[in-house]
């Protein structure tokens, strides 16, 4: 049994076309879909897999994610935001093709010390933003159903860290593990979504498919996975997420 999602439209955001092309294709195929261009972003509003949704491509990085999330919340007033895409796996037991659902998110490149503790968002007094348990439980259930259907990959939940850096070296991964030993994946947008949603008191969730190990091979593994698998994973899991409720 899936957890019940909040009433009202669901906002779905991704950073790159390869993460969301299939989902946007499904959205555009709906007869009643509306397109709105705001702040150099095209927002698609309509029904998707039986739920009212707003879907948008944000662009890469924390600033792009924050602009997009703020615009979506103020313009379309969704009941919740869900960020989908790929990430580098940094936990020892994680592999390419696994799926991560964030319980908390943090900016690993934020450091205003000695004025504030490292990783803490200045003047907020927090470093980690908690995702919605209801949304995250529903995403996890959807991911399990999808992974069971393809017979490959495992589900992980925990801390996902964000920074305006593409992590692509074993040394950088070791540093992140030392600094944040409970982090399981690294990407470039999720913590920005978390902070914006915290400011607007709106629930959020972050879904990431592991595309690489964030090591010296990431520059090759990441684009291959993005081209071959990411969009299909996002479409399949979001379909389960929306139609299961």
Describe this structure in words.
GO terms for molecular function: adenosylhomocysteine nucleosidase activity; methylthioadenosine nucleosidase activity. Residues 9-229 form the Nucleoside phosphorylase domain. This is adenosylhomocysteine nucleosidase. Pathway: Amino-acid biosynthesis; L-methionine biosynthesis via salvage pathway; S-methyl-5-thio-alpha-D-ribose 1-phosphate from S-methyl-5'-thioadenosine (hydrolase route): step 1/2. Keywords: Amino-acid biosynthesis, Glycosidase, Hydrolase, Methionine biosynthesis. There is one protein chain. This protein is an alpha/beta fold and 245 residues long. It has one domain: Nucleoside phosphorylase domain (Rossmann fold, 3-Layer(aba) Sandwich), CATH 3.40.50. Helices cover 37% and strands 28% of the residues. Strands 5-9-8-6-10 form a five-stranded mixed β-barrel. Helix 1 packs parallel to helix 6, helix 2 packs parallel to helix 5 and helix 3 (133-150) packs across helix 6. The protein is globular. The protein starts with 9 loop residues before the first strand and ends with a helix. The mean pLDDT is 93.
Topology:
Blueprint lengths: L9 E5 L2 H12 L5 E5 L2 E8 L2 E7 L4 H15 L3 E10 L9 E9 L20 E3 L2 H18 L4 E8 L7 H10 L3 E5 L2 H10 L4 E9 L5 H26 L2
Parallel strand pairs: 1-4, 1-5, 5-10, 6-8, 8-9
Antiparallel strand pairs: 2-3, 3-4, 5-9, 6-7, 6-10
Helix pairs in contact: 1-6, 2-5, 3-6
């Amino acid at each position: 049994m899936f957890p019940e999602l909040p009433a009202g439209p669901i906002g779905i955001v991704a950073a790159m076309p390869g993460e969301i092309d299939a989902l946007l294709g499904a959205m555009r195929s709906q007869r009643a879909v509306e397109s709105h261009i705001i702040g150099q972003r095209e927002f698609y509003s309509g029904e998707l897999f039986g739920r009212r949704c707003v879907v948008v491509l944000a662009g890469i990085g924390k600033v792009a994610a924050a602009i997009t999330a703020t615009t979506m919340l103020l313009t379309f007033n969704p009941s919740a935001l869900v960020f989908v895409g790929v990430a580098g796996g940094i936990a020892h037991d994680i592999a390419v093709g696994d799926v991560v659902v964030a319980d908390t998110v943090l900016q690993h490149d934020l450091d205003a010390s000695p004025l504030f503790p490292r990783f803490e968002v200045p003047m907020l007094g927090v470093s980690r933003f908690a995702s919605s348990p209801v949304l995250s439980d529903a995403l996890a259930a959807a991911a399990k159903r999808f992974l069971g259907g393809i017979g490959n990959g495992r589900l992980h939940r925990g801390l996902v860290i964000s920074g305006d850096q593409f992590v692509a070296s074993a040394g950088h991964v070791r540093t992140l593990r030392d600094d944040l030993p409970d982090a399981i994946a690294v990407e470039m947008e999720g913590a920005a979504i978390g902070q914006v949603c915290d400011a607007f008191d709106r629930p959020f969730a972050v879904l990431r498919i592991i595309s690489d190990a964030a090591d010296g091979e990431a520059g090759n593994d990441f684009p291959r996975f993005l081209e071959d698998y990411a969009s299909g994973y996002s479409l399949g899991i979001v379909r389960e997420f929306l139609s299961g409720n």
